Amino acid sequence: LLALPLEVNDARRSVLFPSSVSEAYAFSAISGYVRRDTLVNGVGYWLKFSGSGLVPLSGYPYFGDTVGVVAGWNLIGSPTSPVPAGTVLQIPEGILTSPFYGYVTGYGTADTLQPAKGYWVKASGSGTIVFTPTAHRK
């Protein structure tokens, strides 16, 4: 479960993650899992690899601060810097009906949204979540 943590020139899965053994899948509340050839900042993706390891990426920091959500489950991405889950602003207020869930060897709640990770979150309707990465707080 990952997200694109940088703004890159070529966001095709085959360029960013050539060692992956699957396509990248985003989630749509209407269509379910949807294959995506090009990754977008702010979106979470399922992507399979044959083993653990690091994937080097180069690009510019992604400081995006808004992600749209719809009613039901949403698979969102994180920005370049960590974001404490408790600081996420909800528009309208109270739209999120679950904690953020990440995946490592199983699902677990996330206290902090980490760079390059994707997260599930449930919303009661359409809206926006806004976050400010830790590195940019005053």
Q: Quick summary of this structure?
A:
By secondary structure, this protein is mainly beta. It is built from 1 helix and 15 strands. Helix content is 3%, strand content 37%.
How would you portray this structure in words?
The chain has one helix and 15 strands. The chain is an all-beta fold. Strands 7-15-10 form a three-stranded antiparallel beta sheet, with no helix packed on it. The radius of gyration is 14 Å and the shape is globular.
The shape is globular
Q: How far do the termini sit from each other? A: 30 Å
Average pLDDT works out at 91
Q: Major beta sheet, specifics?
A: 3 strands, antiparallel
What Rg do the Cα atoms give? 14 Å
List keywords for this structure.
two-stranded antiparallel sheet, 138 residues, mainly beta, three-stranded antiparallel beta sheet, globular, 15 strands
Write the layout of secondary structure elements.
Elements: E1 2-3, E2 6-7, H1 13-16, E3 24-28, E4 32-36, E5 44-45, E6 60-61, E7 66-69, E8 72-77, E9 83-84, E10 89-91, E11 101-103, E12 107-109, E13 112-113, E14 118-123, E15 127-130
Antiparallel strand pairs: 1-5, 2-6, 3-4, 7-15, 8-14, 9-13, 10-15, 11-12
